[in-house]
Write a structure and sequence with these properties.
By secondary structure, the chain is an alpha/beta fold. Helix content is 47%, strand content 25%.
C-alpha cells in the first residue's frame, strides 16, 4: 500500500491510500496517523479512492485512528481478537467520530465498512472535497 499525505488547512490532514490495507501495512497507517496527530492535526480524512482491498487488520487500523484523533490510546494490535472486539463495542453505540472521516470508498470497501458497522462510527463522504467541506462547515459552526 502506498500513502500520500496532504495538509489542506491547519489542523486537517488527508491520507490517500492506494493498494491493499492488510496485516503487512496496517501498523504503518496507524503510525502515520499518530505522527499527524502529534504534529497538530485534529481532523483526519482517509481518502480511499485507490484502496482495492481491506483486511480485518485494516478495520483495526481505522478504529485505532478514530481513537487517536479523539485523544485516546488505541488497543495494542498484538492483542489480536481483542482489538476486533473493541471495534464491535464501539460501533454498537450511537457515538460518531467526526475527527476521522472516510472519503471515496469504492463499493467493495464501502461494503466492508457497512458490514463491520464502521459506517455507524465514522462519517463516510462521497469524495475528499465533501469530507473537507464538512470540516469547513463544522469549523464555522464552532
Amino acid at each position: 500500500m502506498n500513502t500520500t499525505v496532504d495538509l489542506p488547512s491547519p489542523g486537517v490532514a488527508v491520507i490517500a491510500l492506494d493498494g491493499e490495507l492488510d496485516a503487512s501495512n496496517y501498523r504503518d497507517l496507524i503510525e502515520e496517523g499518530r505522527k499527524l496527530y502529534a504534529d497538530g492535526a485534529r481532523v483526519l480524512v482517509l481518502d480511499l479512492v485507490g484502496l482495492t482491498y481491506m483486511a480485518s487488520s485494516g478495520i483495526v487500523a481505522l478504529h485505532s485512528l478514530a481513537l487517536i484523533f479523539e485523544g485516546h490510546q488505541p488497543p495494542d494490535p498484538e492483542e489480536g481478537w481483542q482489538a476486533i472486539h473493541d471495534v464491535s463495542a464501539d460501533v454498537i453505540g450511537d457515538h460518531q467520530v467526526d475527527a476521522l472521516r472516510i472519503a471515496s470508498a469504492a463499493p467493495p470497501i464501502d461494503r466492508v465498512l457497512d458490514r463491520t458497522g464502521l459506517k455507524n462510527l465514522l462519517p463516510v463522504y462521497e469524495d475528499r472535497a465533501a469530507a473537507l467541506a464538512a470540516e469547513a462547515g463544522s469549523a464555522e459552526a464552532g
